[in-house]
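worker-3 :: picked UPF0248 protein Ferp_1096
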Amino acid sequence: MRKYSLRDLINKVIWHPELDRKKLEIRFIDRPEGVSAIRGDEIEEVGHKFVFAHVPIPYHRIVEVRYDGKVIWRKGEKVDLSRI
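worker-3 :: tokens ->
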């Protein structure tokens, strides 16, 4: 069974023709602010170590990913592409 990465999950939402990237929300640790969020339409690039939006966000700081308000991934869980 293939292991999927958080990067795979984000790319699926951004590039899948039936999914709306505006419904994607990535919550991340933003020092010193606490936890901040960006929407999928704010993402400029999905790199190997960072998600680039208005600031580069390292994957290890991402704590939760939501699609259409539903949590599809939380830090510490395995990535399951079928949850979308």
